[in-house]
Design brief:
It comes from Paractinoplanes durhamensis. The protein contains twelve helices and eight strands. By secondary structure, it is α/β, with parallel strands linked by helices. Strands 1-8-7-6-5-4-3-2 form an eight-stranded parallel sheet.
Length: about 300
């Protein structure tokens, strides 16, 4: 089971402390040491709105390039992709992740446009990115609920996916941590009908302590990848009270012990989660493994 490490992007973007580029590069390096092989390292967003990501180009230039490792960058529009493509090819990410928000109100607040206008942008960006040899993921954010307008119906998400055009990978995101396992089942069925055969990925926050139940449900439904952040840090700067992602170390423990090998060394991941929390000035991180330890003993 693949874990996509999103701490260097989604984890850091909601934290008050802006870390130096060197610390971000060390964060990625430690993630590699813990066995993670697909990492979202940066977002090409407006620096005035997301100052934590202002050094996206420099991070990509400096992260270690290792065989078998794939780096992802979040891109919100054509300008973001232009910044990616302006990089030397050796410094580019291997993939881009483009976010379309499921509710119009949240989409306007997050991206200044409604959902379907954002989807038009995705189609144009995806085509240009594929021509440049980049992998493309569409993330449908707030697929499980909107902080401003409430429930998001599965048919709404299904309609977005059906209108998206060709997809390389589809990620369903519970941006504000309201989802429960039955929603995972309903959404999976709907998007598989709308986009048969497209690999599925999920992105869960643990705001209401349901993130891990949702993750194991997605794994059992055949999702190929799950997002998580070391330490469980992060959230969404545009969603009120959105807390962190499910923690990489806790998720790896759950999956490994369930017979779904992740390749993640739990103890090293937990140590990195504790370390990044200290770098951010946090008294503790949401992850449990750093306190409880692996079981049995300190095995990975």
């Amino acid at each position: 089971m693949e874990i996509v490490e999103v701490g260097p992007r989604d984890g850091l973007q909601n934290e008050k402390r802006v870390l130096p580029t060197g610390t971000k590069v060390e964060y990625v390096t430690r993630a590699l040491f813990a066995g993670l092989r697909r990492i979202e390292v940066a977002a090409f967003a407006r620096p005035d709105r997301v100052p934590q990501m202002a050094d996206a180009e420099e991070v990509l230039r400096r992260v270690p390039r290792v065989d078998g490792v794939r780096y992802i960058a979040l891109v919100l529009n054509g300008r973001g992709l232009d910044r990616v493509l302006a990089l030397d090819p050796a410094a580019r990410p291997h993939e881009i992740n483009y976010v379309v928000v499921a509710s119009d109100e949240f989409a306007r607040r997050n991206q200044g446009m409604d959902t379907m206008t954002s989807l038009d942008g995705f189609r144009a960006v995806a085509e240009k990115a594929r021509e440049a040899g980049l992998g493309v993921t569409l993330t449908v954010a707030a697929a499980f609920g909107c902080p401003f307008t409430g429930e998001v119906k599965p048919d709404r998400v299904r309609g977005i996916v059906a209108a998206a055009g060709p997809l390389g990978e589809l990620c369903l995101a519970d941006t504000i941590g309201v989802g429960v396992p039955v929603q995972v089942e309903e959404l999976a069925a709907g998007v598989r009908e709308a986009a048969p055969g497209v690999p599925l990925r999920a992105h869960f926050h643990n705001t209401r302590n349901t993130g891990y139940a949702n993750a194991i449900t997605a794994a059992r439904l055949g999702f190929g990848a799950l997002d998580a952040s070391l330490g469980g840090i992060g959230g969404c700067p545009f969603a009120p009270a959105a807390t962190g992602n499910i923690a990489t170390e806790d998720l790896a423990y759950l999956l490994n012990r369930s017979g779904l090998a992740t390749g993640v060394a739990v103890q090293q991941a937990a140590e990195t989660g504790t370390w990044i929390g200290a770098e951010l000035g946090l008294t503790s991180v949401p992850a449990q493994l750093g306190r409880a330890g692996d079981y049995p003993g300190n095995l990975s």
